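dumping this here before i forget
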Amino acid sequence: MIAPLEMFEAGLGSALVAGLALGGLAYAANWPSSQLFGRALTAPRNPENGPGEIALTFDDGPNPRWTPILLETLARHNVRATFFLLGKYASIQRPMVRQMHDAGHLIGNHTWTHPYLARTGKMQTREELTRTKSELEQIIGAPIRFFRPPFGSRRPATLRIARELGLIPVLWNAMTADWDAAEAGQITPRLSRFVERNQKRGYATNIVLHDGGPQTLEVNRSASVAAAGQLVERFDPTHRFVTLDEWETEL
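structure:
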């Protein structure tokens, strides 16, 4: 007969194992640096000879109010960025998407409706990616080759489907809650510290900002747009701003 203490210890051990397993799955599904569910592009090591590199990336647009201001800011500094667009917004703002592409910015796939893909079925995941890819390619007349999962959430099937569609999964190594910020001062210092930390470790920086929001087409992104301008002004003298296709060979 098993003693009560032994039963308790056995149950506790099983609970700990289950907890660790769930924690591991959550890490693999959501943490941007995790590669447990499959390879994804984050940021490579900086070139041995030359300045450190920064990829400015923007999610959840296009936003008819704030994306044009952001494009003007980037144009003033001759900086190219990567925009992960929502299909539902791109489909009703085709001229803006073409403008972004024509200005030399890289257009990426951020799904049609911004679902949490770690809990999304394979059929819906494929539909989200396929529909967005097709829409964006029709608009810009060029292949869409990069994909960022909303929230960074994914599971093995997410990345497998993306690759079957010719999409390179992309995560990040610098992000703060810019979507909740009231002013750029709540964003720029934190992202600057990420750049400096990555630089010390020998890595480039893949920054996420948001020029849109999944729930509201014209959500206020004034703080994020202002922060983007501040980051460019701060790091343009010491770093090189790149689009993600320049890092493709690093994956």
